[in-house]
Amino acid sequence: MRFWDASAVVPLVIAEAETPICRALLLEDPEIVVWCLTPVEVMSALARRLREDVLRLPEFRRAKAQLGLLERSWAEVTSVEQVRELARRLLETHALRAAGALQLASALIVAEHHPRDFPFVTLGQRLSDAAEREGFALLGPDA
Asked: What would the pLDDT profile of 13-26 be if each residue is shown by its tens digit?
């Protein structure tokens, strides 16, 4: 089981440079855990690419369908109050934005505050740095 940040989920639903490594990581361990608002973050990334003409409408629709399949198979951290409180501390400790702090807080909760043995999959540099300082084993292209 691995915690997946939204940045690492996006290449699972659309073709990007990181898609091969993200798919390989998923094949190694198909048990994904995400923050419950990860689908919103992924949809934001997809919609932005559609608006910027990086994705065409058929690709966007396929990506949404692929996201739906992933959602049916993954586990979600839904402890909003716990995540919110922990994210506040993380914002004071690390150079994170709100979404990154919520992702990292979710990962800490699912790892039961013992991140050493819980892999964290992310593509974001700030989040990667903070997760590493919190003690997570990092997986991804730059890990």
From this structure: 999 999 999 999 99
